[in-house]
Amino acid sequence: MAYLTTRLIAAIAASLFALTVASGAQDSSSDTSAKMSTPAVEAPTPAGDVDMDKVLAAGPLEEKALGDADAPVTVVEYMSMTCPHCQAFHVNTFDALKEKYIDTGKVRFILREFPLDPRAAAAIMLARCAPNDQFFPMVDVLFNQQTKWATAQDARTALLEISRLAGFTQDSFEACLTNQQLLDDVNTVRNVAANEYGVDSTPTFLINGKRYPGDLSIEQMSAIIDPLL
């Protein structure tokens, strides 16, 4: 009897083990199927083509760029400092883009002006006038605090408060905002983008000869960039 009992227990244990293995294999198969069935983010359809040699030709303003000049992919962003979609891109996506592609030498990123209103023009002028070559840090601060100055009743005072933190004085602040040549050059950059490259909204990205309007996620940017590497 003891012998039969032992054999029965062994048989039950073996059966349970087989069921466990089969269940695990089924779960694993299900997990694999689920993973395989999860669609990857597709690259957005470009809105048109652009001549990158023409885009990258010298313009009236110093180019504000990050990354290796010889990177295989060039991303040119046209943005407006008062644009909420531009703000969303810079707050939610730009850091990931910088870490994954710009800092690794895969992308050269160029930021260009496309002001949609006088406040946006004033803000980008201040970024260009920022002491100690603080253009990109100033852009970051202005986007992070966009709601504080872009819709303020007294935008000038709000911008002055932010600018003081970047090292502006009252005099340098006023000198920047009354620099007519700088304003004219900013508007020229915008007009060239609109008339020659088809930019009609912000943000718009020109990536290796293709034009992509709209706030792109890092997944969408990756879907565009990775095949170009």
TrEMBL record:
<comment type="function">
    <text>May be required for disulfide bond formation in some proteins.</text>
</comment>
<feature type="domain" description="Thioredoxin">
    <location>
        <begin position="32"/>
        <end position="229"/>
    </location>
</feature>
<dbReference type="Pfam" id="PF13462">
    <property type="entry name" value="Thioredoxin_4"/>
</dbReference>
<dbReference type="InterPro" id="IPR012336">
    <property type="entry name" value="Thioredoxin-like_fold"/>
</dbReference>
<protein>
    <submittedName>
        <fullName>DsbA family protein</fullName>
    </submittedName>
</protein>
<feature type="region of interest" description="Disordered">
    <location>
        <begin position="28"/>
        <end position="47"/>
    </location>
</feature>
<dbReference type="InterPro" id="IPR013766">
    <property type="entry name" value="Thioredoxin_domain"/>
</dbReference>
<keyword id="KW-0732">Signal</keyword>
<comment type="similarity">
    <text>Belongs to the thioredoxin family. DsbA subfamily.</text>
</comment>
<feature type="signal peptide">
    <location>
        <begin position="1"/>
        <end position="25"/>
    </location>
</feature>
